[in-house]
Amino acid sequence: VFDPVNFIINNVKHKNLGVIDIGHGTTDAALFINGTIDDRRKDHIISTVATTAVYDALRKLIVAKFDSMGKRIKVTDEDLDQVIRSKEIIHLNKPIPVEEEIKAAVDEVAPIIVKAVLDAWGDEVYRLNAIYLTGGGAHIFDNAIRELLAEKGIDILVSLENPQFANVIGFYMVGALVQSKMIGETAAFEQYVIPVFGANAA
């Protein structure tokens, strides 16, 4: 977290963290033990199953729904972006609810992701204080992954605010920290922090 005096304050409450980053085409997972990334696992891409898998399943379910209604529909990725947000799809200017289809698609894919994460982490998962869920697909999988982990007695999932931007913010913070070592904390704060996060960033 940015602070004008200390520049960056370590506000991480837990030393042992897991991070699940669900993107469009891959799911990444990393462990931070005692505040340091566990580099024993060089490949943090633990699955090629991610948001696209939900889109593929959802597209088939929506087409099948319309077939059963005697109607035809073409569903693009852009349509699905809107469907995920609104829980409905527009057909001949009429909204058709597809919340059940979304849940079915997520419920089909989420167990694959959870299994891949737990297989990658093994017994290390029981040392964790928290598991952060981030990435562009986090909001799609949040409830399903939370429930699947809870079934295994793991109830430490934390959903990040604005998870789709968490990586960008993290990289920016690292860049600002690097700049602080080159030009000083005050200059870095004024040039790189205030314009983005405001003067009261903390």
Distance between the termini: 5 Å
Continuous helix count = 6
Helix content, binned percent: 40-55%
Low-pLDDT sequence parts: none
Beta-strand segment tally: 10
Sheet with the most strands? Answer: 6 strands, mixed
H/E element order: EEEEEEHHEEHEHEHH
Give a quick set of tags describing it.
6 helices, two-stranded antiparallel sheet, alpha+beta, 48% helix, 6-stranded mixed beta sheet, single chain, 202 residues
Characterize the structure shown:
This protein has 202 residues and is of the alpha+beta class. Helix content is 48%, strand content 19%. It contains six helices and ten strands, in the order E-E-E-E-E-E-H-H-E-E-H-E-H-E-H-H. It has helices spanning 51-68, 77-86, 99-121, 138-151, 166-183, 185-197, and strands at 2-3, 7-8, 17-22, 27-33, 36-37, 45-47, 88-91, 94-97, 130-134, 157-159. Strands 3, 4, 5, 6, 9 and 10 form a six-stranded mixed sheet that branches. A two-stranded antiparallel sheet has the order 1-2. Strands 7-8 form a two-stranded antiparallel sheet. Helix 3 (99-121) crosses helix 4 (138-151). The chain is flat and about 65 Å long. The relative contact order is 0.16. The model has no long low-confidence stretch (mean pLDDT 85).
